[in-house]
Amino acid sequence: MRAKKVVLAYSGGVDTSVCIPYLKHEWGVEQVVALAADLGQGEDLEAVRQKALASGADQAIVQDARDQFVFDYAFAALQANALYEGRYPLATALARPLIARLLVQCAHAVGADGVAHGCTGKGNDQVRFDVSIAALDPRLKVLAPAREWGMSREETIAYGERYGIPAPVKKKSPYSIDFNLLGRSIECGILEDPWAEPPEEVYAMTRPINQTPEEPTYVEIDFERGIPVSLDANPLEPVKLVSELNRLAGDNGVGRIDMVENRLVGIKSREIYECPAGVVLVLAHQALEALTLPREVTNYKRGIEDTYAQLVYNGLWYSPLRGALDSFIDFTQKRVSGTIRVRLHRGTATVVGRRSTYSLYDPDLATYSEGDSFDHRAAEGFIYVWGLPTRVWARLDNP
After folding, report:
1. Which residues partner with 173 through β-bridges?
2. Does this model's pTM top 0.70?
3. I want to staple 311 with a disulfide (CB 3.0 to 4.6 A). Which of 103, 316, 350, 389 is the partner?
4. Could you give the dihedral angle defined by the CA atoms of residues 285, 289, 290 and 291, in that order, rounded to the nearest 10 degrees?
5. Start and end of every Arginosuccinate synthase C-terminal domain (predicted)?
6. CA 56, CA 164: separation in Å to the nearest integer?
């Protein structure tokens, strides 16, 4: 039995707009509540809300979730240095569990017995939504009309027109784009050819190299317990900090990622990402950890970071394993406080300075100049003990 009252994750695009009459007329849903989340995508969300109502929604809600998105999701992933396949800061993937939480909360508030989304059966987002919703409230029915209706793009537009949803008036972009405060993901069109260089038109947050400043830009990022709190000694709230760093890094052409990645459903996909702030923050955070964490912790944490990134990408934000990993990561961040100086220039971000009251770097031990306090005489005994297993092994090959 289908749900009677449904909360729909609404973006204002063709698919989610068509979902509204489809849910009602094909699946017998009595009421549809459209929920649009403000994650810093820069759209006129009041216009999006009005479009939902014009498309047949019984109620349309816009929820500002920017602070929650950055602090509870983006910064948690930052503390884990979460980069999917070592490169992607997970901007889109991090948004999905938050939207799922908002859907569930809204369903509880309005007395809905189901939630819906406009994901197709080919991508990662369907998994992220379905699994996250099940983790938060397994009693709610999850409806995915676009995964089941089997309509082409043209047929979807025509179906919407039957119920008063106007067809897009401008020429459709060949690209599929998702955008939030943490970055943009771009796919489809010519990008489906992994040999083709991305045209400049796909980028919006980052300048091309030939339009970046000739002189480098330096930015100092202060962290407290692994969380960025200020730029150039100017304290900023999370949303403003990310926004400003997006501007600084983007103006210098930093944050472009072109990769072929492995989707959860088993497909290799060519993706273009723009994540100016994300790229710089992970780079800076890694540098601060290198200064403040013991070697054994840093080495062990690298494996945790890869697992963490896979959990986020694969829709397992609310899994017990991620909760357990958070406890480990929280402990490691107790002394990850200090300042990192980053040089932004011609598409590159380079750490050029670091300092912390918790620094494990001892100049008197590291120096080769006068004042060296390292006991060189201890080295011979250390090497003997350290190399003992190797020498014992070697004797078997050299009797």
Report:
1. none
2. yes
3. 316
4. 110
5. 175-393
6. 9
Quote the CA–CA distance of 288 and 339 in Å, as a whole number. Answer: 8
- Amino acid letter at 346? R
List, in order, residues 6 or more apart from 367 with CB less than 8 Å away: none
- Domain locations in the chain as residue ranges: 5-162, 176-293+336-355
Cα torsion through 247, 253, 258, 262, rounded to 10: -30
| Tokens 């031990």, located at residue | 365
DSSP 175: S
pLDDT confidence bin for 110, thresholds 50/70/90: very high
Contact 124, 15 (CB under 8 A): no
DSSP H helical ranges for the chain: 14-25, 45-54, 66-68, 75-79, 91-110, 125-136, 145-148, 153-162, 238-251, 276-292, 295-313, 320-332, 363-366, 378-397
Nearest to 177 by CA among 64, 13, 48, 61: 13
CATH code at 176-293+336-355: 3.90.1260.10
Establish whether 16 is an annotated binding residue: yes
Mean pLDDT in residue range 66-86 = 97
Q: Does the structure show a pLDDT above 70 at 343?
A: yes
- Positions marked active-site: 15, 96, 125, 176
Lowest mean pLDDT among 14-28, 126-140, 317-331, 372-386: 372-386
Strands of the 59-64 sheet, one edge to the other? 59-64, 31-38, 5-9, 114-116, 141-143
- 3-state SS, residue 286: helix
User: Residue range 38-67: average pLDDT?
Assistant: 94
Q: Any binding-site annotation on 10?
A: yes
261 is in an annotated binding site: yes
CB 288 within 8 A of CB 335: no
DSSP per residue, 86-128:
TTB--HHHHHHHHHHHHHHHHHHHHT-SEEE----SSSSHHHH
Topology of the domain comprising 5-162: Rossmann fold (3.40.50)
Establish whether 373 is an annotated binding residue.
no
**Which of 13-22, 184-193, 327-336, 379-388 is the least confident region?**
379-388
DSSP-derived secondary structure letter, 74: I
Q: Beta partners for 235?
A: 230
